[in-house]
Recover the amino acids of this structure.
């Protein structure tokens, strides 16, 4: 077949890394297998009314039982890097106390299987699946959870660190804090700003404690964190819209970046204050980092009008309803490069949800290819302006459990048929492979 091909001038440095990303709860399934304990997402997804169509991650892509063949899929793309997360309750069922050797062995096999295929393992320690045993003791609202997390990080760092290309503590703490504890869209489902602020602080504290614990234990892998980020655009030049854009950016980006890189929280008359910050916490949070992971999907569009003014690109939205705005990736990277002294950056997620279906063995997903091409061009523009970016991970390897949207939103380079578990390469997978191949020849 004639697959769409990338433009020949879309080129990156020879050492640039190409990857795909996934997370444990979204692909593994095997929720009760191999001694895995329950996570807050098991509890949440099994609570009626929380997730679209009542979908759960019980089976998901059944990756827990199909790991070897999924590694072959990754290999077939031609990528050199794979980002995945460890399900904490699989390796430590309660989040404290006993370790589960069968769970640890699963991730040993995953890492070894990647290395055997010449693919670098990039490990995320926390992609939202907190052991329910810790939620029962207060979850991230409790300072003690940060202490347990540091111990979990130390054990995983010692077990896998020598074979890992990188270890990141958290994926998108904003999502955990805000979507999980203020907006009630994600597990554990609270709607309370005071809890959200405590959770955000304990996530950041746990990041700092985990870096300290892994370094003290001699873990040599590069260590960092993954944050979701967007630049913000006021809908007009009215004072209200400009103030809104500034405040939204402070809560979305600076709330995490400032503590880590400037050792302080943003403050101002329109910003909240967290009530659990103790002396010394900010110094703990601001540990030096070896890399920063940036997840970018869209920009923040800030309209204070009622009803809000829609963004100009409202036509180019994905299935998530997210505006297709590649310029935002350039703008964001240039902005943070100017505001902070940063370690090397990886784009740890960027991707597009589309209503894909298999027709005669083929998945024609032109909107995704368009999204990938324009965002990679935008990334290249930021690098040309001096931003140090070392790699790009497409979200996601395959269609998977999209949290409160269940299986309805498809981000994958591989289409997944959830009744047969058959994976089919989409046109975008062929396009990505061609793009990577273009670099291997050069
Ligand atoms: C990220 N929002 O999630 C996650 O890291 C992935 O697990 C997820 O599948 C991917 O992006 C696609 O959604 C987000 O509503 C979920 O702003 C929601 C939001 C942002 C990121």
């Amino acid at each position: 077949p004639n697959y769409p091909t990338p433009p020949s001038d879309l080129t990156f440095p020879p050492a640039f890394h190409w990857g795909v990303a996934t997370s444990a709860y979204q692909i593994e399934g095997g929720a009760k297998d191999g001694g895995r304990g329950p996570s807050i997402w098991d509890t949440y997804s099994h609570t009626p009314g929380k997730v679209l169509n009542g979908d759960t991650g019980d089976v998901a892509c059944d990756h827990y039982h199909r790991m070897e063949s999924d590694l072959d899929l990754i290999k077939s793309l031609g990528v050199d890097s794979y980002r995945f997360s460890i399900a904490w309750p699989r390796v430590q069922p309660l989040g404290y106390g006993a370790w589960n050797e069968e769970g640890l062995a699963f991730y040993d096999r995953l890492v070894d299987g990647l290395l055997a295929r010449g693919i670098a393992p990039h490990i995320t320690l926390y992609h939202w699946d907190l052991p329910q045993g810790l939620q029962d003791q207060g979850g991230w609202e409790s300072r003690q959870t940060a202490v347990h997390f540091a111990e979990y990080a130390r054990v995983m760092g010692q077990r896998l660190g020598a074979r890992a290309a990188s270890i990141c503590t958290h994926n998108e703490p904003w999502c955990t804090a805000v979507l999980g504890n203020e907006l009630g869209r994600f597990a554990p489902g609270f709607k309370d700003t005071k809890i959200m602020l405590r959770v955000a602080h304990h996530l950041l504290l746990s990041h700092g404690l985990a870096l300290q614990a892994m370094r003290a234990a001699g873990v040599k892998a590069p260590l960092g964190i993954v944050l979701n980020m967007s630049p913000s655009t006021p809908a007009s030049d009215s004072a209200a819209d400009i103030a809104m854009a500034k405040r939204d950016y402070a809560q979305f980006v600076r709330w995490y970046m400032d503590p880590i890189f400037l050792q302080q929280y943003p403050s101002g008359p329109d910003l909240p204050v967290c009530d659990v910050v103790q002396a010394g916490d900010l110094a703990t949070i601001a540990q030096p980092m070896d890399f920063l992971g940036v997840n970018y999907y869209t920009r923040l569009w800030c309209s204070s009008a009622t009803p809000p003014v829609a963004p100009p690109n409202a036509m180019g939205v994905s299935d998530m309803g997210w505006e297709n705005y590649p310029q935002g990736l350039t703008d964001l990277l240039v902005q943070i490069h100017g505001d902070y002294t940063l370690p090397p950056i990886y784009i740890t997620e960027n991707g597009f949800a589309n209503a894909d279906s298999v027709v005669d063995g083929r998945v024609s997903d032109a909107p995704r290819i368009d999204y990938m091409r324009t965002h990679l061009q935008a990334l290249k523009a930021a690098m040309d302006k001096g931003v140090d970016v070392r790699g790009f991970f497409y979200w996601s390897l395959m269609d998977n459990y999209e949290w409160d949207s269940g299986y309805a939103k498809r981000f994958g380079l591989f289409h997944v048929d959830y009744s047969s578990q058959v994976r089919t390469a989409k046109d975008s997978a062929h396009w990505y492979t061609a793009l990577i191949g273009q670099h291997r020849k050069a």
In short: Residues 23, 26, 171-172, 175, 228, 295, 349, 395, 402, 411 surround 4-nitrophenyl beta-D-glucopyranoside (CB under 6 Å). The radius of gyration is 21 Å. Residues 353 and 411 are 4 Å apart (CA to CA). Residues 193-216 form the longest helix (24 residues).
